[in-house]
Amino acid sequence: MSQSDPEIQEARRHRRRFSLIWLIPIAAAVVALYLGYNSWNSRGPLVTLTFQTADGITAGQTKVRYKAVDIGTVESIRLTGNLSRVSVKVRMARDVEDKLTDKARFWIVRPRLTAGNISGLETIVSGAYIEFDPGIGSGEEQREFEGLSDPPGIRSDEPGRIFVLHTQRIGALSKGSPVYFRDVQVGEILSFDEPGMDGVITMRAFIRSPFEGYLRAGSRFWNTSGVSVGFGPNGVKLELESLKALLAGGIAFDTPERFRSQPKAPDDAEYTVYEDADAAFTATSPDRIEFIVYPDGDVSGLTRRSAVVMRGIRIGSVQSVDLAYDKDADVFRVPVRIAVEPDRIAFPAGRPEFDVRRAVTHLVQQGLRASLKSGNLLTGQKSIALDFHTDAPPAEVREEDGVLVLPSLGGDSDDIMGAISAVAGKLQNFPLDEIGRNLNSALASVSGLAGGPELKGAISSLADVMKDVRELVQRTDNGLTPLLRRLPQIANNLDQMVARANSAVGSIERGYGGDSAFNRQLDRMMQQVTDAARSVRMLTDYLDRHPEALIRGRTD
Which of 124, 355, 381, 447 is most buried, most CB within 10 Å of its CB? Predict the structure, then answer.
């Protein structure tokens, strides 16, 4: 290479510097990665809920709530494999992840009308949502849940206890029916079990605190559904717990006074629900003594739960009334099994411990007997009465199948029926036909006498005499001369009239009797006639003694 040629320099590659513009996408990527990780990290668990129907649920919109706070959202809805139910995927908040255990419950909130209550009305505007209840206590982790078809009666955070109740019939009771304590609603029925072969239905009832602390082992439950109408010694009795209980059914409970000193009922306590309050409070307690009674007479009106009384006070109940054949005596008998509760009897120093057979034997020797007693003559209701009869024949206490048999006497209903039969027999033997014939004959005689000529003539004569007497009195002041000429005739007429009147009075006496109204009137008439005759005689005597009175008049 010659010196004149230019020197060719070595090519150099300049490295480009990093442009700041690239920071923007890098920062965006970092932020996106952070947000994605944060979203993934804060994303709650996905749970599967199974319901009967998805009515009201919408994917991406329907929320899961707890105490009105959103804690999840429905992501998808699909049918199960057999198309019988609906599977709902719900994304829950991480805050409640530890509460998703086997204690948790889910249900759909929509408008409902149950047991007289209306709930879920707010969903008419906002739409249906899924309610969540975490349950009480800790449990095993779970991600699949069976949704409830109906809302639960109580929430897990509501204080109170659940009790098991047994009944023969539920009537108008249903899930959600109220439980009352002295007319105050203190709980509700949660569920029912299917009845068994014995017909007993088991249900569970929740009672809020503090009312659950009022329950004792001797507490009584009864059905308050509908209206109870009864007829007793005080007249017609009508019972109605409340309008809500009438429409939706309900039960009530209370504790008889004799059991209120017992400790609080344990958590596993079970109770029987009776038909009404009377049946509940008259039901026998577990602490009872059973006897068998063979009452004399008709036992119609004596039923299960009829009263067992002593001196009018109830001390027990009838357990059963049966008809049995006595092979040895070759007769049919009616064994009545009764239960006596010693707790119903007040002992001054508390209930003593005693041997039942020895005590009953002593009481029977003192005259204790059982008998039928009529409780209500209108309805025919009867009871078993225990009382002491000092004149009762001697009797012994025996046993049948391990149960003591009390001796019995005839009841008051038998005495009443016997008295009625005796009166009916006397009435039957009473000679009513003969008395009727005699009465008809007497009435015929009286009728003939009253219409006969003798009485009519006597009355006519009396009328004539009274007319003559009146004329005599009127003409006395004008002069007695014409009258004196008629005095013999008047006296004669009076004698005849008195004779005929006496004859008539005798006939009337025989027909009417001495105390009849006609006889009394006739006596008064005869008295007046006698007074008139006496006045005429006095006037005649006076004129005999003073004839000048006819000219001068009376001068005294």
Answer: 381
